[in-house]
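It is worth pausing here to work through a concrete case rather than discussing structure prediction in the abstract. The textbook approach is simple: state the sequence, then state the predicted structure, then interpret. We follow exactly that order.
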Amino acid sequence: MPSTVALLADERDFTAMRRYASFAFDDHGAYLRQMEGLLRALAAKGVHTTVALFDPVAYEEFCADTRLDPDTPASRTRYTAELAAAGGTVTYAGQPIDRLVPRLIGVAEEQATWEYATALLSRAAHRGDCRDDTARAAFDRAGAALRAVVEAAGPGVHHLVCSVPADGTSLVAVLHADAREAGPPKLAEPSALVFRTVLACGFALRSPGGLVLRTIVADTPETVRGWAQQDGWLRPLSEAEVFTAYCTDAETGEPIPPEHGVEYRAGIPLDRPE
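Step two, the predicted structure:
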């Protein structure tokens, strides 16, 4: 039978759980080592195991909503089962705990970004903020824009970052695309869904977001291109705009030295769908 293990990756979260008498651990490092031993033991038995991030605050809310005693192993098990059903897990494949933890945190952040972006799209459609567009149309256009960017970039390994300001915060999505072989580029899932949803938020809300593409091709300098979200599509930035965006500190406005071996190029014009 498959198994799910919920991990307290952050020491502050670990400390928060120590207030429960049924939680027997008192040292975060020792806890992580024991959890790694558990994962290895499950893998040695051929058990397919996924790992989720255990959030003490969400756990407390879960217990309050379900009227469960939070100070029992049974309640923690039920919460873990809910995490597994909601997604946002990492498959254990024998990776060391110091590699597993950062990946787990990244997946949890990606899941939270997707949920927030989805809620923003739904709220915008309900309020009519999308004007002549709908949330579905914005999502479809985001898919078309993503395909257009990757296809225009050509062969190579592509690293895309989409940033959209919304409700006083900034939604950020990251996506890797492998276009080294013939055929359609390989997009990492579910990162592609998160990326598309964040981009759709920028289109639907008419937010002044942006998209940056870094391309790596063997034996050639890395290239960086950029686009701005404008009128429900992507406007290519000039070479000077890309250079300024990359070589300026976002918080202080001070110039940053350009990266060695990186070429800053203008964004490629993309045909807007009908």
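Step three, interpretation. Residues 97-127 form the longest helix (31 residues). The beta strands are 3-7, 49-53, 90-91, 157-166, 169-178, 186-187, 210-216, 222-230, 233-236, 262-264.
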